[in-house]
Task: structure prediction
Amino acid sequence: MARLTINGRSVSLEVADDMPLLWAIRDYIGLTGTKYGCGASLCGACTVHVDGKATRSCITPIASVDGSDVTTIEGLSSGGDHPVQLAWVAEDAPQCGFCQSGQIMQAAALLADNPDPSDEEIDKAMKGNLCRCGTYNQIRAAIKHAARANMAGNDGEEVSV
Amino acid sequence: MTTRRQFLKVSAAVGGGLLVGFRLGAPETAMAAEGGDDSTDAAGVFQPNAWVEMHPDGRTMLTISGSEMGQGAMTVIPMMIAEELDLPWGAFDTRFAPADEAYSNPALGAQVTGGSATVRGFYSTLREVGAATREMLMQAAANRWGVPISELRTEPGVVLHVATGRQAEYKTLVGDAAGLEPPENVFTKDRADFRIIGKPMKRLDSPQKVNGQAEFGMDVRPGNVLMASVERCPVFGGKLKSVETGKARKSANVEDVIELDHGVAVLARDWWSADQARKKLWIEWDEGELADLDDEGIDAQFREGVKKDARPARTEGRGAGALGSEENTLSATYRVPYLAHTTMEPMNATASVTDTGVTVWVPTQAPGSVQQVAAEIAGVSPEQVTVHTTFLGGGFGRRFETDFVREAVTLSKQAGRPVKVIYSRPDDVQHDFYRPAAYNELSATLGDDGMPVTWVHRIAGPSIWSRVAPGMVKDGIDPAAVEGAADHPYQIDNIAVSYANIDPGIPVGFWRSVGHSQNAYIVESFLDELARRAEIDPVEYRRRLLKADSRHIGVLERAAQMAGWGGDLPEGQAQGVALAESFGSYCAEVAQVSIENGKPRVHKVFCAIDCGIAVNPAGVERQIHSSIAYGLTAALSGQITIKNGRVQQQNFHNYPALSIDQMPEVEVSIVDSGQPPGGVGEPGLPPLAPAVVNALAVLTGKPVRSLPIKLG
Ligand code: FES
Ligand code: FES
Result:
């Protein structure tokens, strides 16, 4: 049994202590935006925030997040209008989209720590998030877009074209 | 201009004698599949064909007759309809098509999404669909105003009578239009009048893909569903002999354990519990004939096959008989491995078998095949099977297959409840239909000018069509095995390309760009070997072998120009070039590469593509990025190895995927030939590997004759 806050809602779960957070979220809480891609911390598709930190939910036993505050893609913003989400749409980043919840959660955590990451810092933070559709250049552009928006307090569209 | 009669006839012909591709009434199933508010009174709803449904309240529903697997079908299909219908961009909803022959892709003759055919297959049909619909709205206005239709025109969403200044919004006309006959003649716009086609359009599905709402197959959860994890015989073709299920059955949350021919399924309330319990099964397999197969054995079969079983795929001039003296002849052996697809969303399917029929929710590239397979297993007619195609978390050819559908339907039938089968990532890697491995012997004799006079290429490898549609294999030649090799564009007097269909038993299937994925690498790398031997610049070498003014030359020169070919490069970097025609498009790439810590590092790729009219240039560019990433993954690390009849790789640690820090910068230029659209989902892939290895050969002086690339 574990109690946690998920997207601002408290839940208690009667599941095995070692059930990964990912499957508790998907199959018991019923939020399916968080994806399964490898089950072994190798792809990043399952990334959520645990107390604000980007975390691979597929290898995180539910018991270890007892009492924690968990945010999934569904809770990142109320209307899909987190600066990272807006930047993703503006840069036309998704293709199939399956990796993108994880990419966005990872990027949001990066920008919360480091509002203006360099290319190397983006590489370091994002290289565990695989995308088989090859959207990496758009992801990089979207992270920079969101960084600009955060700093300028606007939508991050570049002024000159 | 196409007349309606011609149009219908053509559609019937490409449909292979099935139902016509262009229906004048909406198919019943399109309504039934969606349920919900579509069941409201249909009075006044205008449904001129299988794609368009317009309501008097202004709602317009467009049906997406192709799977959305990342390639942008959900955006580009409406672009083609909206252009000709003069629909304001974005003023419509979309839904995915149900399984129905009405939605067969005219280029493929079946309801499948693949072969880079969404645009090139539907380009005429969907514009005619839009144009015919617009014409009917205009006719409704003409009748109402008592003026000839020739005096009317449209602006987005509105019919106008210029002389009197009268205008009517489409929604005010749909009720009348619903009572009209479709027009005899369909006119489509001149390219110069396009408002939507040719403009870079943003994807319509982004908003739901950034907030977790997009529903993939894995996310579907019908009430009362059981989650299944299946232990399959690790040896291809092996069968279940016996199983001890006691411990698994007693595991937490487990509801059922079901034996299958090829494995054992554990069904639980949640997938993780099923997968955990699966480890407690005690299974004895009948491993079958492949239990001793390994890579050495496979290679030996290929080497022997190429000698004994090769059949001619193309012969020009005197063929292999024209090979010359040893000192003027270069020979090489090239090998490529089996490759898994590893779509980001592992294989899955959800099925519900009831007394009245079957419902399947599945990310699929082939809804028609899903319907057939489900009907066969459940013992019902195909009409009793409803297929909901969800978003696909990647396709790349893997989702033409129906192995996961078979399992889900079989299990639901037995369990008497809806069942969702999810492949774990190791299942997905180890039970794929792989890109065929291939063994290639090449020889070429050069003339005094250094140019080839004879080209001989012998291929041995398994055949995809032999399993999927044996009728495609003629005189021993599987067209997919030799595409890009038998039909390369280089003008050489004597050519002999042959193929030996050797099947070691590893299942093979379509993998992004299919035969081109290996043959472009082999042809273009060997060609560079010849150019180096001749000491002629590789761009110049190709130019001399290509037909003047060909589309090949067009992209080759554009790519060279973009890359500043022959110019100064940063210390330690080199450029390589390659060219390939596939799926109706022409693509040249220049890769700029260095070696870092003994490993290739691709800094930049310049890509020129001639895909005819680029319906959505933004989509074209994204597909090039995507193809480069997919091709580079394979070139750098893609390799499925076999031991004891089993795949040795399991997950991304030993079957890696490219990560963001390895992604090259990509620059894309679309060469506008004004030709009808070609494919774009695949053509960017074939030239990538050879461009990279050709650059590496400049740095190391050594050709790379097998993939994945191993230096030193
Ligand atoms: S599913 Fe968690 S890292 Fe891949
Ligand atoms: S968008 Fe398809 S895996 Fe990233």
